[in-house]
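Shipment paperwork, digital attachment
Item: protein structure file
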Amino acid sequence: MASTDVVAGRGGETAQTLDRGLRLLHLVADAPGGLTVTEAATRLGIGRAAIYRLVGPLTGHGMLRRDADGRLRLGAGVLHLARRAQPLLAEGALPALRRLAEQAGATAHLTVVEGGEGVALVVVEPSWTSFHVAYRTGARHPLDRGAAGRAILAGRAGVAEPVSSSGELQSGAYGVAAPVLGVPGLEASVGVVALAPLDVELVGPQVRAAATAVAVALR
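Attachment content:
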């Protein structure tokens, strides 16, 4: 076999290993209770030995860990990468969120999925209103409550239409949100929250346009 064939073969094996490792990380991330090696092998359609070969370096880099029962769980290294990425997400989203807050006269936010919950990563308040919602950056909530979380769930199904809510997270608060679609590895929504009912026919297109702008900025 020629040397170029050997290099090409090794390159293909490396790409396959990398793909399997990333798929394994995604599987573990989507399993709140962790995965056994056997479960991971079954879902990836590969042997247990191959899983062990993936787990070794991923554990060494802190991407995976084994709990007391030997189940695979995400490691602290993933959180470190996520924290390093958050300022980049915020920077990319800020222009669209500022426009949205001014247009809607309501507090705009980018909400991302972290640990199975929605987390407000970026919050922008309008400059011209007398009263508006003070929404704390870092606030967490279940994905099945509130417009931001339910928009993310809709995005998982490929639905881009805005979602509205009333008093689901806080009594007297109204929200409209739309999912951020088309950014690999990111589950997020853009939305607004106000102290008075929002006109979905008016605010909905503004929110959806902002979500599209954020997606374009982050690709």
